[in-house]
């Protein structure tokens, strides 16, 4: 297992009023993402716990791509990964911010 | 695009535990206890280099079903096989004890809905898991003794095996779909210990013919058979809340008699078609092949009913 934190700045705070959301399951080739609106301004924090060692550079690229496509400012993402592929990770992150944005 | 019928009526088997809960209860009524943000997780998995889950694979809480309060426990079968372990077990036992303590007060619930999806005890924390199963059985019996029915809903990927099979058998009412399976010793374990001649775990048709929903409901291991969509499980849960038998000595004696009769009638059968032939079904080999509507028609025309539990 490997654990690390990625910090970044988004273009803007995430719209919507949702405080917290969870998507995905820690199944084989899958991951869970807990989203909490706990950061200030445009800051983004991604805490990763993954079963696959040695892929930090790939995670950083996926997160950078996701933040460029979305605007998840103010959100902390806590991830438990069980060997998901990068495209699955991107989909889960996008699914999570969509849920947080549209929550009442 | 996702087909309209799948959006309207998602499959129980394919859904996650969280999505099952939201489809089962009245909209926006679920209140989770010890939710993912509380981060109450397994302290053991890290030693095995395995990633944890924020809810340790069990979701517990309260909600409403047709306007009446219910307690809900859902296992996520995709995480570690939906296992009974230290934290997940404590969540199950804690909720059951709270339900028993609140019975008859304004905080009481009309039923406990137990969404089983488990291969049994989590081997990485086996002692705690075995204890969790026995504590769950004890707490479940206390809930029933307090007059609150416990309804098992079985139709997930992992089925209800090991301790999950034992817990299912202790419930007031068991709802199952074709995909659902209930047993104690799983097919792979039987094959490992007794050989493929005894039970070939790779023969999927055999596994479902013996442990699957249709066999279980025909033999009385389950009480209600439903189509595999979430809405059907919801309707059956609401119906069976009022149909659960009282938890009395008479019910237990009737259950014992029913099981003894079943054993003496079919105990020497080698496979399920033999049982259905002996039970007088006109086409005993077709049971796994007919569609759900035909199977439900078969159940109702033969008035198959197992009243004890």
Protein model, in words:
The complex is a heterodimer of chains A (about 100) and B (about 300). By secondary structure, chain A is α+β, with helices and mostly antiparallel strands. Chain A has a single domain (about 1-100), classed as Ribosomal Protein S5, domain 2 (2-Layer Sandwich). Helices cover about 30% and strands about 35% of the residues of chain A. The longest helix of chain A is centred in the C-terminal third of the chain and has 17 residues, at about 85-100. The model of chain A has no long low-confidence stretch (mean pLDDT about 95). Chain B is an alpha/beta fold. Chain B has a single domain, classed as 2-enoyl-CoA Hydratase, Chain A, domain 1 (Alpha-Beta Complex). A seven-stranded mixed β-sheet of chain B has the order 1-2-3-4-5-6-7, sandwiched between helices. In chain B, helix 3 (about 85-100) packs parallel to helix 4, helix 4 (about 125-145) runs parallel beside helix 5 (about 165-170) and helix 7 runs parallel beside helix 8. The longest helix of chain B has 20 residues, at about 125-145. The interface of A and B includes residues 1 and 32 of A.
What secondary-structure arrangement, pairings included, does this model have?
The complex is a heterodimer of chains A (104) and B (309).
Chain A: E1 2-9, E2 20-24, E3 30-36, E4 43-50, H1 56-69, E5 76-82, H2 86-102
Parallel strand pairs in A: 4-5
Antiparallel strand pairs in A: 1-4, 2-3, 3-5
Chain B: H1 4-8, H2 17-24, E1 31-33, E2 58-65, E3 68-75, H3 86-102, E4 112-116, H4 126-145, E5 150-154, H5 163-169, E6 173-176, H6 187-194, H7 204-211, H8 213-219, E7 224-225, H9 230-243, H10 249-266, H11 272-278, H12 292-301
